[in-house]
């Protein structure tokens, strides 16, 4: 029994070493077309903003890797009500952990969960801005699947 356990351990560690690829790091930036949805989210125009951050790619095999990211993401909406245009701007620190499936060179599918921490939330409309959330010691947590 002891020999079987030792052989199984060597087989598992050998399998991981044979399939282990490389770890790469990079920078990611892009455009966000954000919007709010829900029961009270009628007639809202999405905010076009940006996201920027870093990524790490941990190769598991030739066709599969795990890619955690850390991104600053600006989001929000705009609405006109009774002639006054108001804007809501929310900023998040997002941490998606994506499974990356490589289909061909330069073509891959990414899917996985994301956790977002609210950094700031501001509303502007009329003559003065409002701060929607000022106590950031207990940030709002958002979990989503992409």
Key features of this structure:
single chain, 146 residues, mainly beta, eight-stranded antiparallel sheet, 1 helix, 65% strand
Can you put this structure into words, describing what you see?
The protein has one helix at 2-19; strands spanning 23-34, 45-59, 64-81, 84-104, 107-111, 113-125, 128-133, 141-145. The chain is mostly beta strands. Strands 1, 2, 3, 4, 5, 6, 7 and 8 form an eight-stranded antiparallel beta sheet that branches. The longest helix is centred in the first third of the chain and has 18 residues, at 2-19.
Which residues sit in consecutive blocks of at least 5 with pLDDT less than 50?
1-19, 133-138
How many DSSP H or I helices?
1
Please describe the biggest sheet, giving its number of strands, its sense, and whether it closes into a barrel: 8 strands, antiparallel
> How many runs of DSSP E, i.e. beta strands?
8
Structural class: mainly beta
N-to-C CA distance? 45 Å
DSSP strand (E) fraction?
A: over 45%
Shape: elongated
The amount of helix comes to 10-25%
The average pLDDT value, as a whole number, equals 75
Provide the gyration radius in Å.
Answer: 22 Å
Run of helices and strands: HEEEEEEEE
């Amino acid at each position: 029994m002891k020999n079987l356990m030792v052989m199984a351990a060597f087989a598992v560690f050998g399998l991981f070493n044979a399939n282990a690829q490389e770890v790469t790091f990079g920078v990611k930036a892009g455009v966000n077309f954000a919007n709010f949805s829900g029961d009270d989210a009628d007639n809202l125009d999405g905010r076009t903003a940006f996201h920027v951050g870093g990524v790490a790619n941990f190769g598991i095999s030739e066709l599969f890797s795990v890619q955690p990211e850390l991104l600053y993401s600006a989001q929000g909406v705009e609405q006109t009500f009774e002639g006054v245009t108001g804007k809501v701007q929310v900023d998040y620190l997002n941490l998606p952990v994506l499974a990356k499936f490589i289909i061909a060179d330069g073509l891959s599918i990414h899917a996985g969960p994301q956790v977002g921490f609210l950094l700031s939330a501001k509303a502007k409309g009329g003559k003065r801005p409002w701060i929607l959330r000022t106590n950031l010691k207990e940030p709002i947590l958002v979990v989503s699947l992409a």
